[in-house]
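Researcher: Structure prediction, please.
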Amino acid sequence: MDKMITTYSMWRSFRDCRKACYWRYFQQLVPLQKAHSLAFGSVIHQCLEIWHGSQNISDVLEHIDHTYINRIADEKEKADWHLARAMMMGYARIYPKENFEVVTLEQEFSGPIINPETGAESRTFILAGKVDGIVKMDGSYYLLEHKTASQIDGGYLDRLWTDFQIILYSWYIEKCRGYKISGIIYNILAKAKLKQSKGETEAEFEERREALIAKSKTGKSSAKRKLPETNEEFQSRLAEKYSDQQMFHREILFISRDQFEELQAELWELSQAMLEARRRKAFYRNTSCCFQYNRPCAYYPLCSSGGNPNIIENMYERKAPHSELSESVLNTQNKPIF
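Model: Predicted structure follows.
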């Protein structure tokens, strides 16, 4: 009997809120509008794959141009285009050469979920995934993990040790690909908060000019209307921002073998709980996650409406899970959920 493909994202969703897991992985629903931060992060991951594969910034910039093809008419695309270009050109200047050797990029794997007490494999599930890269430094192998962050500070760096996904994936890379992973190199890029100035409208300028005249002893003002910032001017301002090395950070976390055992046990427990939830068709909500990260869950409209079909039709589309994986992995042992 074929086993069901799972990913860490699925198990994390099930652990955090079983109802959200049900909507995504059982009903295969995704919001029509993807979260902006996730979409931009995906583009930067693609850019970094190109850069570390070719070391050619022209290839990277060409990819950005093709990604944001509607930037002239779409203000959001234009803003992301500016940011992605400045970020990657700054990255290329800060890291023109690496102190590690790239072994492979976008490495996929799939392997069994194992009962840590008996060594037996799950008869229902296997785990699949993909890592950004495997690199070799000072004779040891490391996973290379890319991150984009709104701010790189002590709080952000302290939370990296809770990134159980990449630690678990290290174990699977060892077992499935044969690389003994010593640690993880987190490659973090900060997102600049600069905005391109739109200048003043005629009405805004007149209002400001009249206020200046009212304060002037002469009853006159030499103020001129603030014109929109050109693309060249904005790129120059962004380039200056990304000349600061603090916009980039590398953090190395070394792996303890005890962490492997702990996460294997957690994954096994989750798989058993999933089997029970599937058998009973009982996926309860965790309301403490409804507004996690100061924004509503992607499935909040569905849960709050009781799964209203009109909400599904207007706000969601059906999309097979694990789209980050190649067809060769997805087709190995995939089977229907119910």
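Model: Residues 4-192+242-330 form a domain with the Lambda Exonuclease; Chain A fold (CATH 3.90.320.10).
Researcher: Thanks, that helps.
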